[in-house]
Amino acid sequence: MAGNSGADLHVRPALIVVISDALGETAELVAQAAASQFPGHPIEVRRFPHVTTEEDFQELMAGLGEAPAAVVYTIILPELRQAIAGRLQTAGVPYVDVMGPLLDGLAVRLAASPSRQPGLVHRLDARYFRRVEAVEFAVRYDDGKDPAGILRAEVVLLGVSRTSKTPTSMYLAHRQIKVANVPLVPEADLPDELFQVSPRKIIGLTINPEILLQIRTERLKSLGLGSGSRYADLGRIIEELEYADRVYRRLACTVVDVSQKAVEETANRILEIVGRT
Questions:
Q1: Among residues 58, 97, 258, 263, which one has the fewest Cβ atoms lying within 10 Å of its Cβ?
Q2: Distance CA 157, CA 201 (A)
Q3: Domain limits at 109?
Q4: How many domains does the chain have?
């Protein structure tokens, strides 16, 4: 009995081989989930990414030195999937084709062929994280909170109050563009950082004064305030817009008129200007 107990301590773990033509993270999660259902049984999951040919598969199997308990794979090319399945069947090794049946089913249901490009999900993930980063950037450097963002931004929006700087910044952020926006107020000094960046990434927003008067008046009403404030005074609005025009000329930046424009229109015009359409 003592001898058997000692032997048990050196039982070699069952081996699950994970194979992918990309990174293999999806297949590895499947394998780990399955292994977790056998507590007390030693199971090793070993991942082999970037297996793109039958020769790659043969080499890795030959190098294992032992027959795996199972093989899990995510392979896009149908020829390679079939070759792997055939060899594993011949060797009597259980296998799970994670991607194949779903790809085939979707192809039939959609009457379309898959792109058959390995790693596309990671490209989508990369775009997602760039978008999240851009949104966080827009929030952090909104409304001139931190002028340091001007130096790091891909686009800098300038404008007087209620020229849609913030919503335009957020729209551009969802297009993976890092935007800082800075309010223009005649009584406030301009950030030095504005003169340290290329005018090509600075966009000045302007608007018809009558339209801006209506927007600001409605804004005051929504806040439960009267319309007697200088904020909604036409003379003050004209003064602010003239100041903004002087700033734009000084910076030699492009100016976009947002009068009667939806945020999407303004943002798309900016994308054209900065060459990111």
A1: 58
A2: 9
A3: 2-118
A4: 2
pLDDT in tens, 190-238: 999 999 999 999 999 999 999 999 999 998 988 888 767 899 999 999 9
Residue 70 β-bridge partners: 16
Helix (H/G/I), strand (E/B), else coil: 232 = helix
List residues bridging with 257 in a β-sheet: 206
Six-digit token pair at 256?
Answer: 């976009």
Buried/exposed 22-48: b ≥16 CB within 10 Å, e otherwise:
bbbebbbebbeeebeeeeeeebebebb
Concatenating the DSSP letter of every residue in 167-211 gives HHHHHHHTTT--EEEEE--TTSPPPGGGGSS-GGGEEEEE--HHH
Residue entry with tokens 């504005």:
194
pLDDT per residue as tens digits for the range 91-150 = 999 999 998 898 889 889 899 887 777 766 666 567 778 888 999 999 999 999 999 999
Strand partners, 155: 179
